[in-house]
Amino acid sequence: MGPVLFEDDLVVVTHRPLSEGRLPGYLFVEPRRHTTGGFPDLTDAEGAAIGQAAARAARVLRRELAPRYVFSKITGITWEHFHQHVFARDHDTPDDVPWHSPDLWADAPPFDTDALERLCARLRERFSDPAPISPPR
C-alpha cells in the first residue's frame, strides 16, 4: 500500500507506491473492508463511498497536476480485492502510450521518493480542504 491521501469509515485513497510504477498522480481507491469478489461484493454504502472518493480523487488530480486527462479503471485481474485506479495522463505523454497502461511510457520524466512525498503532501491538503471540490462550469 502506498501513501494514504484520504480515508474515512468506508474508503481509503492511496498513491501507488514507486515499487509498482513511477508515475505521479496514480491513485487507488479501495474499501476498508477486504473483498475478494470485486465490484459485486461491495455494499451499497461502499459503492457510493467509492464513487464519491473516486470523483473527488479525479478532481484533486485535475486541480493539482492539470493533466491532459484523468482516467479511471477497475480491472480485477491481478489482485483478489477491489480497488479502483484513478490516474493522471500528462500532456507530454506520447499518443502511442495506451490510456490504460501509462507505465508503457519508457521515457517518462523521473519521479523519485522525494517527489512522491512532496506530491502526496499537496494531494493530502487538497483532500482535507473543507471547501467542496466542485467540477468546473
Automatic annotation (TrEMBL):
Single GO MF descriptor: hydrolase activity
Superkingdom: Bacteria
Keywords, ordered alphabetically: Hydrolase
Keyword flag Translocase: no
Domain BURP residues, every copy: 81-137
Keyword Hydrolase: yes
InterPro entries: BURP_dom, HIT-like_sf
Protein name per the record: Diadenosine tetraphosphate (Ap4A) HIT family hydrolase
